[in-house]
Automatic annotation (TrEMBL):
It comes from the Bacteria. Residues 266-331 form the HTH luxR-type domain. Signal peptide: none annotated. This is LuxR family transcriptional regulator. It holds the Pfam family GerE. InterPro entries: Sig_transdc_resp-reg_C-effctor, TrmB-like, Tscrpt_reg_LuxR_C, WH-like_DNA-bd_sf.
Length: 333
C-alpha cells in the first residue's frame, strides 16, 4: 500500500503517512516518527491514538509497549469495512427519512380534508398525462432554483429529447439547477450525454451509488414526490415543514455525491483535469485544509480525500508535498 491508497480509503494524510512510516520501519519510536513524517511528537501521539482506535496498529507480542502496524491486507480490509459500515448507516438514515416523508405525504393525501392554511396543502395528481402537464407547468414557473433527484437509468432517448427544452429554458432564465443521478448513468450513453449537456449549460451535476427516491423541488417551496404503492401518482407538496425535510434529504445526498466531471475529465484536454480537481489543487496549494476545501467545493471530506488520492496516483507522488511539486511542473497549478 501507499499514502494515496490510504487516502482513498478514508484516512487523513498524517494518519496515512505515520502508518506508512511505521510499516517501513517497524518498531520506530515517537521521536523518530515525528522526524520521518515532519510533524510534532505531540501530533504523532494523537495520530497513534487515532490509528489504535481504528484497529490499524497493535502492540508487539515480543516487545511490550512497542506499536506495530497491522498487515497491509488486514489494514485495507479494515478500512473498507469501515467505509461500508458508514455507507450502510448513511443509507439507513436516508431510508428512514424517505419513509417518514412518504408516510406523512400519503397520510395527508388520504385525509380528504383541506388544510386550514392555504400554503400548507398537498395536491394529488394521477395519470401520466396529468403528471406531465403539472410538471411542465411547474418548470415554466420556476424562477430561482431546481433540484432533481433521479434514481433510475435507461430513460428512453425520446423522453430525454422532450425534457431538454424544459431544462434548457431553466438554464437560459438563470435558474440554478442541481441534478443528482444514480451512478449507473455513467455507463448509459443517452443519460450520460444528457447530464454532460446539463453541466455544460451551467447546471451542477453529481452522481451517487444509490439514491433514496425520485424528487423534484422548485424554488425551495414546491416539490413533486412519487406516491406508493405504484399507480398512486404523485403529490405536489407545498407544506413548508415537509419541503424543509425534503431539502435536508437532498442536501445530505448531494454533499456525499461525486461531481460528474470526476472520472470524465473533459474540462481540460491538455492536463486531463476536471474543474473540481483543478480547484481542489489550487485550494490545497494556497494552504486550505481538507475540511476548508470540502466546504468551498460543497462536497464531503471523504470526496476530497478520494479526489486527492486519485491525483497523487496519477502524479506518481508518495506525499502531497511531492504531488504539489509535480503538479506545478506539469502546469496544473
Amino acid at each position: 500500500m501507499d499514502v494515496p491508497t490510504l487516502l482513498g480509503l478514508g484516512l487523513d494524510e498524517p494518519l496515512a503517512e505515520v502508518w506508512m512510516a511505521m510499516a517501513a520501519a517497524p518498531g520506530v519510536d515517537v521521536p523518530d516518527l515525528a522526524e520521518m513524517v515532519g510533524i510534532s511528537e505531540a501530533h504523532v501521539r494523537e495520530v497513534l491514538t487515532d490509528l489504535a482506535d481504528r484497529a490499524l496498529i497493535r502492540t508487539s507480542h515480543q516487545l511490550p509497549g512497542v506499536l506495530l502496524p497491522i498487515e497491509p491486507e488486514a489494514a485495507r480490509t479494515e478500512l473498507i469495512r469501515r467505509q461500508q459500515l458508514e455507507l450502510a448507516e448513511q443509507q439507513q438514515r436516508f431510508a428512514e427519512q424517505r419513509e417518514h416523508i412518504t408516510r406523512v405525504v400519503t397520510d395527508r393525501v388520504n385525509a380528504h380534508h383541506p388544510p386550514q392554511n392555504p400554503d400548507d396543502r398537498i395536491e394529488h395528481i394521477v395519470g401520466p398525462h396529468a403528471i406531465l402537464s403539472r410538471f411542465t407547468r411547474l418548470l415554466r414557473t420556476t424562477t430561482t432554483s431546481a433540484e432533481y433527484l433521479i434514481p433510475i437509468v435507461g430513460v428512453p432517448s425520446t423522453v430525454l429529447t422532450e425534457l431538454w427544452p424544459l431544462d434548457a429554458d431553466l438554464l437560459r432564465r438563470g435558474v440554478r439547477i442541481r441534478s443528482l443521478y444514480v451512478e449507473g448513468i455513467r455507463t448509459d450513453p443517452p443519460m450520460a450525454a444528457y447530464a454532460r449537456d446539463l453541466q455544460t449549460g451551467g447546471a451542477q451535476v453529481r452522481t451517487s451509488p444509490a439514491l433514496p427516491q425520485r424528487l423534484f423541488i422548485a424554488d425551495r417551496r414546491t416539490a413533486l414526490v412519487p406516491l406508493t404503492p405504484a399507480g398512486c401518482g404523485i403529490a405536489v407538496v407545498h407544506t413548508p415543514a415537509l419541503i424543509s425535510s425534503l431539502l435536508e434529504l437532498f442536501d445530505a445526498v448531494w454533499h456525499n455525491a461525486t461531481p460528474l466531471d470526476i472520472g470524465d475529465r473533459l474540462d481540460d484536454a491538455d492536463s486531463g483535469l476536471s474543474r473540481t480537481e483543478r480547484t481542489l489543487l489550487n485550494l490545497l496549494a494556497d494552504g486550505a485544509t481538507d475540511e476548508t476545501a470540502a466546504r468551498r467545493l460543497g462536497i464531503s471530506l471523504r470526496m476530497v480525500r478520494r479526489i486527492m488520492a486519485d491525483l497523487m496516483h496519477r502524479l506518481d507522488a508518495s506525499s502531497r508535498f511531492e504531488a504539489g511539486i509535480k503538479a506545478a511542473k506539469r502546469g496544473w497549478l
